[in-house]
Amino acid sequence: MEVTYLKAINDALREEMGRDENVFVMGEDVAELGGAFKVTEGLLEAFGSDRVIDTPISESLIVGAGIGAAMLGMRPVVEMQFADFISCAFDQIVNMAATLRFRHGGRASCPMVIRGPSGAGIHGAIFHSQNPEAWFTRVPGLKVVAPSTPYDAKGLLKSAIRDDDPVLYFEHKRLYRSVKEDIPEGDFTVPIGAAEVKHEGRDLSIITYGGTVQQSIDAARIVEKADGVSIEVLDLRTLLPLDREAILASVKKTGKVLIVHEDRLTGGIGGEIGALIAEHAFEYLDGPVTRLAMADTHNAFSPPLEEAILPNTNKIVEAIKRLASY
Amino acid sequence: MAEANLVHSAEAGTRVEYELQLYYWMKLIRGFEERVSRLHRQNKILGGVYSGAGQEGLVAGICAPLQQGDVVLPLHRDLGVFLMRGVDPGVLMAQLMGKDGGLSRGKDSFLHGGDLSRGVFGSTSMLGSSLPVAAGAALKFQIKKEKNIAVAFFGEGAASRGDVHEAMNFAGVRKLPVVFVCENNRYAYSTPLEKQMAIDDVADRAAAYGFKGYVCSGNDLLAVLDVAEPVLARTREGGGPALIECKTYRYHGHSEHDPALYRSKEELLKWESRDPIQRFEFYLEKRGEDVKRLREQTDEKVKAILQRAVEFAENSPWPEVNSVFDQLYASPSPAMLDGRRS
User: Fold this and answer.
1) Over chain A, what is the mean pLDDT?
2) Which residues of B touch A137 (CB under 8 A)?
3) Which CATH number does the domain B6-338 belong to among 3.40.50.300, 3.40.50.970, 3.30.420.40, 3.40.120.10?
4) Domain residues for A16?
5) Contact assignment for B133 to A68 by CB distance below 8 Å
6) A93: pLDDT confidence band, cut at 50, 70 and 90?
7) Which residues is B217 bridged to in the sheet?
């Protein structure tokens, strides 16, 4: 069945709520309105107001209350209306949720999902375009995922809901309605912590996730057609924990690495991946580990500004060509 | 330890027995606090130690009406909550010493560990952050139509934090079964009340969230019970949230490192003369108890319990070094195991 990325997320929520009565959804405008992007549309009608809960504008409360309910065995899926707003809940995530199992000597769990739309490219400007994943990818106790396709979106959300630890689930809002895919109906999961080669190649690896996966595949095809260079695209899918094995396997196979992400360059996960490769696959490299990411500035609004700072297919093509000819 | 959770015996016994039990709990908590301070001076308990000496009345009065299945979120000064919910004094002492036998198994200090089997949720040092969590526990009770309540402690200092507002507002909107308890001990570390807020009573704020606020003397166990018993019962019966403010005072500084020179001797003296344990002894005497004998008996019992607790904690091993990577996740993946490097 062909579904959009957004429908895949909605289906995952609906199926998991049907499967487990402890799963509930909470956030700003998620019930009556069905969410700012309609991700939770129809859930109120299907499951009632005890399990689809509108909240005041209180991100710290939304996450904190999710933690409290999760500690008593519920499986809350809480929404940040825009992933940018997650900064308001930072303390609850990194101090309360992430340390919970550790602080309690392993005798407490926080099976909670925090999901929300991240990413730029829809003229959202500074506060509706951010990619906040790297604030969290260095926090033990959390898991962080960022799907790029409808199949992964559905499978990863199901895994996240069934996981016994807090999972941050970043969905790229530009993909909501722009991406469609034929996926199996009904239940399937995608494991957390497993990257996937989305495009096989021999000469150069692109390591990416989320909103830049399809752009990377498009760029790979362009270069392959024009220059005959064979390019592999590895979709990380999970950012914490990183699939180190898959990363190193691809690098060892191709010898050249381009890391692409829409999150900012400095402090983005690309730096960690570069260090990992330098430490564990240095002798396999035939060129410098290269990064293409959002420039070190804010998510500017005006179209020429936004265009200038974000990665896109053309910029990826140029980066591939430079690295391939090294 | 053989000490049963108060909850069961309170329901079974008479009012007189109930009050005598509460006297015992206050004495045990005070004794525990004093022993902790001593162990800290002896370098047997390291790090930050936050004494609740002087605040035993409010802890006893709020915990007394709690029932099986209720959730309570204590503060850093509320080790009495752990004891009254039935946490073994030895385990609690091991927790404070960073031993493997503690609630955190050495992973965190003081009262950041909890015991979910007794409904005690561990807190963080970001005071006030427990209130949203309490609201979430209450939300679970509401969704599942259970007759339990959540009780969250916070200080008047944390009352200035946004989490407190967010939690109370949401609790009011959803009429959640949660009771917020403000321990107003007049100081946020060194900052006095008048620099923290422009009102006298934190309880006044409850009206803004659509529920009732109550003020009582936290140093008077009977006064706390007079408020806590009907208020907790009302919340349990579906009456929605409430805020109870207990006026109190901590005898020690913010932590044991703090000599609290920002307070006057006269002020401390004034509050020491309102000591919750002595005040309750006065009541028991008026009621006809042989208080001298009761005090001696209780002191002896407390001394024995503390002796066993310290022995247990001192004999508990230090945690294995590699355990610092345990309990980060329910089941670590191979990728996570790779990350166990320094």
Assistant:
1) 97
2) none
3) 3.40.50.970
4) 2-182
5) yes
6) very high
7) B247
